[in-house]
Amino acid sequence: MSQTAPTRIKLNPSFWKHMSCVPFSEDVVPSSLFLRNRHFLVLDIETQRLVQEVGGWDHVDKLGISVACAYDSKTDQFLSFQEKDLKTLIELCYDRLVVGYNVRGFDLPVMVPYGLEISKVDVFDLMYDLEALTRQRFLKLEAVARGTLGTGKSADGLMAVEWWKTGQIQKIIDYCMQDVKVTRDVFQFGRQNNFVRIQRSEANTTQVAVMWN
User: Taking phi first (over 0 means left), then psi (-120 to 50 degrees means alpha), and beta for anything else, what does residue 180 get?
Assistant: First the structure.
C-alpha cells in the first residue's frame, strides 16, 4: 500500500522565538502556506463602531461586526454574513487559507469575541507581506489596487459605520463585497504575474516582486 509523502514546510525565524512546538501561520513562509492549503478564503469585515468609540486600538474586541464578506476559491462564490451567521464563517476560516489586507491586525482580532481562535487559522496577509518586501509601513489597499488593477475601493470605511447606525445594511454589504473583490483580484494578479504595483502618485507607480503561489 503506497503512502503519501508528508508536506514539508519552511519556517520563518519567528517560530524559534516562542515556546509552542506547533508553528503559527506567521511562522510559515508563504509558499509553504499555499502548499498545505488547497483553497483560500478572501475575507473582509465592517464594524458597528469606530475605533475611537471603543477607546482605541487596544479594544478592537468591542467594535462589533456589522457585515463580513468573503470569496471562497473552493466554490468560486462571494458570500456575505451578518452577526447571526458568523459561526458559519468561522468554520470556513478553519478550513481554508484566510487571505486579506491587514486581516491579521484587524479583521481576525475583531472576530475573536464571536468565537474565533486565531491560532487555528492559517493566514496570508497581503499588507504584511508587502510591508516586509518594501520596508514601508501602513501601505493602503487603495494604493496597491490603483497601481495593480487601475481601480480601487468604492467608498470610505467610515461610511460603513454610519450606514450601520442608519440601518442601511445592503450598502454595507455592497461596500464590503467590493473590498473583497479588489483584494481577491490583487491577490490573483500577484499569483499569476509574480508582481504587483503600488501607486505612489498620479504619474508614479512602483513594481514589487511577490511570491504568492
Answer: alpha
pLDDT over threshold 60, residue 178: yes
CB 42 within 8 A of CB 99: yes
Given a contact cutoff of 8 angstroms between Cβ atoms, the answer to whether 148 and 140 are in contact is: no
User: E strands within 127-194?
Assistant: none
* Reported confidence tier of residue 31, pLDDT bands at 50, 70, 90: low
- Give Cα 26 distance to the centre of its chain: 13
Cell of 185: 483580484
For residue 156, is it left (φ>0), alpha (ψ between -120 and 50) or beta?
beta
| Residue 38, SS3 per DSSP | coil
Predicted structure pTM score? 0.84
Cell match 476560516: residue?
93
Q: Give the model's pLDDT for residue 2.
A: 44
Specify the amino acid at residue 36. R
Q: 80: which 3 cell numbers?
A: 456575505
Buried b (16+ CB within 10 A) or exposed e, 40-60: bbbbbbbbbbebeebeeeeeb
Domains along the sequence of the chain with CATH: 25-209 (3.30.420.10)
